Give the backbone structure.
Amino acid sequence: MKYAKKKENGKNVNDKTTILYNHRITVKDIPPEAYRYIVSGKPAIDWVVER
């Protein structure tokens, strides 16, 4: 599982609104409010992506 990439100033950066699970499953349109839910000092979505 990883974040999608987007071009910003000529560099690829993580697109925090889209998570790629595999070639068939993509979660899009994640609102910024979702990153406000913090678990042990880190957004819960980041925990899920890292696991």
